[in-house]
Write a structure and sequence with these properties.
Helix content is 84%, strand content 0%. By secondary structure, it is an all-alpha fold.
Length: 454
């Protein structure tokens, strides 16, 4: 096997193994916490996490993307400037968390949030002091080192959350657990690359370069947040905390899959293409084989997961969460389109076209804002989920059109892969039905069956 192929396979293996292991650990943590805590607490924590993610992305200037893509990323003057900007941003975000706690609690109609949300300030402040060593590892495409780092942290989080949930089965188990988890992450980043030390330092030329590149990252992150989290924002106002917690179960399981695609893009595809520094047609030819290899595996694996999705919910969760088994297969089908979009997004980022993802996410957000409220009103939660799935298709089409205009389109490949994905769902579901573990394919989508009968 050629050395280049061996290196690619090794990196793909490390990313996959680490993601699967950390996902299993997070799922185990989620299942145990769901049994120890009330669904309403999980719903409240979803809002807290959403708030923290939102203010971080609404002020994102692409510190990591700057270090990975800039030729001066290894220069201490450059990365110390980036780190200083990151620390200042974290402190400002902490202040914003405190100031917005009461207004947001009033907006969501959930008074307890006014007490809980200020603690999100600690999430932002601690994260701001993290070392940029994680970005340097990404720039060097040191996938094995990063994978070991993440697996160790995921294993550390479990005893923290479980102990707190047993001691105090309240929202504070989740809040204090999150603070401890982020604190451990921050400290660990300084151990990732021996010898890395940071100082408060601003080089005006480097700061200008970071902010100029970051302006598109800022807009992209802001629109991306709205597109990716519109469902949480919308449902947080429209659903009860218990319903929100049930939806969150299905959403978190789906994100486990889509985040693997994000990891491939972030840790491998983006730095590889950035390092090529080649014109788009050449990039397309060089990544075609590897892209097909990864996405064939994704199509078959995700198809199997969709086929068994309701079985997974019944096995892992008690009867309070049974509705998640109806929602999960719909979200997982949308996840296939999200995976294709993610790959295209990181290809465009690698050839310095960050604006393209912004336009695609804007189209997705607009479709969500129009369709989801109408669908929820007439068809309930399942109808709203179907509207959200349609939004993923709109994003994919937008990205494909833009990729094609830059000679990076893979339309025929994606069409063939999508057919393979749907066939995989049907074949695996039929196999599970034959051995008596699930109902037939129609039983996987009871909402569709009702519509067809009408």
């Amino acid at each position: 096997m050629p050395s280049g192929v061996r290196t690619l396979v090794s990196r793909l293996s490390w990313i996959t193994v680490s993601h699967v292991l950390t996902s299993v650990l997070r799922l185990l943590n989620n299942v145990i916490l769901a049994r120890l805590l009330a669904p309403s607490l999980l719903g409240m924590m979803l809002i807290v996490s959403l708030f923290r993610t939102g203010i971080e992305l609404f002020t994102d200037v692409g510190i990591g993307q700057n270090i990975v893509s800039n030729k001066k990323g290894h220069d201490p003057d450059f990365y110390d400037t980036a780190w200083t900007i990151q620390v200042f941003r974290g402190l400002v975000l902490g202040l914003i968390c405190v100031l917005l706690a009461k207004p947001l609690a009033h907006s969501f109609g959930k008074a307890d949030l006014s007490v809980v949300l200020p603690f999100a300030a600690l999430f932002c402040i601690l994260s701001g002091f993290s070392s940029v060593s994680t970005f340097l590892v990404q720039k060097n495409i040191e996938v094995a080192r990063f994978a070991k780092f993440e697996m160790a942290l995921a294993a550390l989080n479990i005893p923290i959350y479980w102990t707190l949930a047993v001691i105090t089965p309240t929202i504070w188990a989740l809040i204090v657990g999150a603070v401890a988890s982020i604190g451990a992450l921050t400290v660990s980043t300084y151990l990732l690359i021996p010898g890395i030390r940071h100082r408060f330092f601003i080089d005006l030329k480097n700061a200008r370069a970071i902010l100029v590149f970051g302006k598109w990252i800022f807009w992209s992150s802001m629109i991306s947040f709205l597109a990716m989290n519109f469902d949480r924002l919308f449902f947080a106002k429209e659903l009860s905390l218990a319903q929100l917690g049930i939806y969150g179960i299905a959403r978190n399981l789906t994100e486990t899959i889509t985040q693997l695609a994000v990891r491939y893009g972030n840790l491998l595809l983006f730095p590889m293409i950035a390092e090529m520094a080649a014109p788009p047609p050449e990039v397309r030819g060089r990544i075609r084989h590897g892209r097909r290899l990864v996405l064939v595996g994704a199509a078959v694996g995700l198809g199997a997961l969709v086929a068994a999705s309701d079985l997974i919910i019944r096995t892992l969760y008690d009867a309070r969460y049974r509705e998640a088994g109806i929602i999960l297969p719909l979200l997982l089908i949308a996840a296939w389109l999200a995976i294709l979009s993610t790959v295209n997004e990181y290809m465009l980022l690698g050839v310095s076209k960050p604006a393209m993802a912004t336009y695609a996410n804007a189209a997705k957000f607009i479709s969500y804002a129009i369709a989801a409220p109408i669908a929820l009103h007439y068809f309930g939660l399942v109808g709203a989920v179907l509207a959200l799935s349609a939004g993923e298709a709109i994003k994919y089409v937008s990205l494909w059109l833009q990729s094609r205009s830059h000679h990076l389109g893979f339309g025929r490949d994606d069409a063939a892969l999508s057919i393979a994905f749907l066939l995989s769902v049907a074949v695996f579901r039929e196999a599970l039905f034959r051995i008596g573990l699930t109902s037939n394919l129609q039983g996987l989508f009871p909402f569709a069956a009702i519509v067809l009968r009408n």
